[in-house]
Amino acid sequence: MKRLLNTLYITQSDVYLSLDGDNIVLLKEQEKLARLPLHNLESIVSFGYTGASPALMGYCAERNISLAFFTASGRYLARVIGESKGNVVLRKRQYMASEDLVLSAKIARNFIVGKIYNHKWMIERMTRDYALRIDVPQFKTVSQQLSALLLDVRECEDLERLRGLEGQAAISYNRVFDSMILQQKEDFYFHSRSRRPPMDNVNAMLSFAYSLLAHDVSSALEGVGLDAYVGFLHRDRPGRASLALDVMEELRGVFADRFVLSLINKKIMSKEDFFEKGNGAVIMKDEGRKRFLTAWQNKKQEKITHPFLGEKISWGLVPHVQALLLARYLRNDLDEYPPFLWK
Fold first, then answer.
1. At residue 49, does pLDDT exceed 60?
2. Which residues 6+ apart lie within 8 Å of 78 measured at CB?
3. Tell me, what DSSP letter sits at residue 253?
């Protein structure tokens, strides 16, 4: 099993990344801020425009250390990857499967099964744990709607209809998402999903979490030899990691959404961690982003029992396991792709 190493997050926008031997050096206006050994890292994420030296990028590419660049607001820009580690047969099977719309739908529906199942579990857990603080009949109604949609998704062999069913499930789930926010209700609320730009504190956190999750999933897919840009549910679009978006569907709610909700409900994040720009866009401040990233890294270290493997692993390894299972399915080692079904 892959070892979960550290991810280095550089949150200051004016820090330049360079290489010194087997170490990464962080520089600000020629002043050395830090020097860290690269053998302890599996990923480097930089929020800013200052950049990195070609020597560091080459070192990371050769040693399969993911180096990703985001804007200060958390929007993904680019990622440095090295030579593909996978064999050509696997990628050819991935490309052929992506061109077959019926086969694509059969694969994609398991991503959606995982997503809806996990959303339903989140809702049922809320009714169990917080029955006195939420509208239980409303939550039960949404849970029943998701159960019915799950049955339809399992039988669906058409991509367009599958997207429609996924959209219906998202509408039902979003209807109760605001009720899962139990603390700081005046400052944290969810009326609808807004992106590019996010228009409230909750959407700013969700967008940031999804960007981080997409990066982790992309790295996991590339690590097993798959092409993160050729998907099944999400079709080809220049610059879009379509397969990463496919695989992360089943993890959006159970990992990213629950993580955001915990930061609000445990009062780890507050309204002081955000500011609103002139166009209404809400951005996370530096201190808030640091606190968010620290909690994200801690979350990835938490242990769970993987529902398919039955083995104890950390949350951070879940994308790597799902990428491996998808590769095994495409190699015909599994009858179907097993989605991540968490309880």
1. yes
2. 68, 69
3. I
Tens digits of residue pLDDT in 76-87: 777 777 766 557
Q: Which residue has the tokens 């599996």?
A: 42
The radius of gyration computed from the CA coordinates of the chain, to the nearest angstrom, equals: 20
Last residue of a domain, one of 62, 80, 98: 80
Residue 133, C-beta contacts closer than 8 angstroms, at least 6 positions apart: 182
Residue 340 forms part of a structural domain: no
User: Which positions make up the binding site?
Assistant: 166, 234, 249
CA distance 53 to 73: 23
DSSP letters spanning 198-242: --SHHHHHHHHHHHHHHHHHHHHHHHTT--TT--SSSPP-TT--H
pLDDT tens per residue, range 158-206: 999 999 999 999 999 999 999 999 998 889 999 888 877 888 999 999 9
Range of the domain at 179: 88-331
Q: Which residues are annotated as a binding site for Mn(2+)?
A: 166, 234, 249
Assess whether 104 and 204 both reside in one domain. yes
Assign residue 27 the CATH number of its domain: 3.100.10.20
Residues 76 and 102 in one domain: no
Which ranges constitute the DSSP H helices of 252-317?
Answer: 258-265, 286-301
Contact 49, 12 (CB under 8 A): no
What pTM was computed for the model? 0.83
